[in-house]
């Protein structure tokens, strides 16, 4: 379940909005699971994401995957979250953010 009360507001007028919401983190903080959503102006596409402290990640589409160009943008953000986790942990911070929201405009 989303922490956003009105997900309709997340649909951009152009481009895509990419949302990651953490659903679980292992007790040792080595792994985390996220609900990921690609919002386009007219649609939304759900994914599950598993990430590990070693920087690896896996995205699994729901019933309908997003267009390849949008799924690729989602993968870039997932990669950034996963790759920065070990550095955050070594700095004494929570490695897995609760929520990450990014917008990518047309051509970005």
Any descriptors?
single chain; 108 residues; alpha+beta; five-stranded antiparallel sheet; 21% helix
What do these coordinates show?
By secondary structure, the chain is an alpha+beta fold. It has one domain. It has one helix and five strands; from the N terminus they run ββββαβ. The protein has a five-stranded antiparallel sheet, covered by helices on one side. The chain starts with 15 loop residues before the first strand and ends with a strand. 22% of the residues are buried.
Query: What series of H and E elements makes up the topology?
Result: EEEEHE
Based on the structure, what is the oligomeric state of the protein chains? Answer: single chain
Weakly predicted, low-confidence segments: none
Q: Could you give a short account of the major beta sheet?
A: 5 strands, antiparallel
| Total beta-strand segments | 5
Number of domains: 1
Q: Hey, roughly how much beta strand do the residues contain?
A: 35-45%
Mean pLDDT: 92
Distance between the termini: 29 Å
What strand line-up does the widest sheet have? 4-3-2-1-5
Helix content range: 10-25%
Question: How do the helices and strands line up, and which of them pair or pack?
Answer:
Layout: E1 16-25, E2 31-39, E3 44-52, E4 57-61, H1 68-90, E5 99-104
Antiparallel strand pairs: 1-2, 1-5, 2-3, 3-4
TL;DR?
The protein is an alpha+beta fold and 108 residues long. Helix content is 21%, strand content 36%. It has one helix at residues 68-90; strands at residues 16-25, 31-39, 44-52, 57-61, 99-104.
């Amino acid at each position: 379940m989303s922490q956003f009360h009105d997900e309709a507001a997340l649909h951009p007028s152009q481009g895509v909005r990419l949302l990651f919401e953490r659903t679980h983190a292992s007790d040792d903080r080595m792994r985390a699971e996220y609900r990921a959503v690609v919002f386009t102006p007219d649609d939304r596409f759900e994914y599950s994401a598993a990430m590990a402290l070693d920087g690896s990640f896996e995205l699994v589409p729901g019933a309908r995957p997003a267009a390849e160009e949008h799924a690729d943008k989602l993968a870039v953000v997932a990669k950034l979250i996963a790759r920065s986790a070990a550095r955050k942990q070594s700095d004494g911070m929570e490695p897995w953010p609760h929520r990450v929201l990014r917008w990518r405009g047309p051509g970005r």
